[in-house]
Amino acid sequence: MQENITFPDFNFAEGELLLINKPYQWTSFDVVGKIRNSLKPQKLKVGHAGTLDPLATGLLIICTGKLTKQIDTFQAEEKEYIGTLVLGATTPSYDMETEVDATFDISQITEEQIYAASEQFKGDISQYPPAHSAVKVNGERLYVKARLGEEVELKKRFVTVNEFEITKIALPEVDFRIVCSKGTYIRSLVSDFGKALNNGAYMSKLTRTRSGNFLLSNAYELPDLIAYLRNKREEAKANTEINEKA
């Protein structure tokens, strides 16, 4: 645990909103489970307000106790992301979860074309969720069907992209910043971006930096929070044993 980190006096039963920097390769449900287990023997509701893919990092809002009733409200807020896409190749998952399945020549792509392509994705747009995603079809997650090789008819969804800024071009990599509505799949946007250039693209890095007014810069590192909660649990257990012997 890092030094000089201070935590408030949490009241998890009444309800706490925890800002967590989700670690790479963790699912959002992994984070929820880790925090729930750290709060035992208390039996509390714990949930998150907006899924992050395992290969994404950044701000994950966790609600406990009575505050879980407000998850839908937090989840509906505008989101901001920064990330990196790779031009000249595609993957079935639109990110690095799966292997490259096609490559394209990018030698003729100019910076002007890249900036122009980004303009096409500002405003109200339609997109299909990735086949490798947590969207449910007939009660089953799409990624489960995709891993089994099953074909699934994807349903188009409409989302809003308020800002799509190209922040750095170092081909084949392109860095970007996106501000968008709830439900936007950045992986799908990246895939469509490649198609807009008559090419291919997949996402290699993604970090959520903001959700509503909540910022990643104010988030706890998960190992620090878990260590603190476990220490508090051990202290409470020790105090109980002392009182029982008294």
Automatic annotation (TrEMBL):
Gene Ontology molecular-function annotations: tRNA pseudouridine(55) synthase activity
Keywords, alphabetical: Isomerase, tRNA processing
E.C. no: 5.4.99.25
Catalytic site positions: 53 (nucleophile)
SUPFAM superfamilies on file: Pseudouridine synthase
Domain Pseudouridine synthase II N-terminal: 42-186
NCBIfam families attached to this UniProt entry: TruB
Family affiliation: Belongs to the pseudouridine synthase TruB family. Type 1 subfamily.
Descriptive protein name: tRNA pseudouridine synthase B
Lineage: Bacteria, Pseudomonadati, Bacteroidota, Sphingobacteriia, Sphingobacteriales
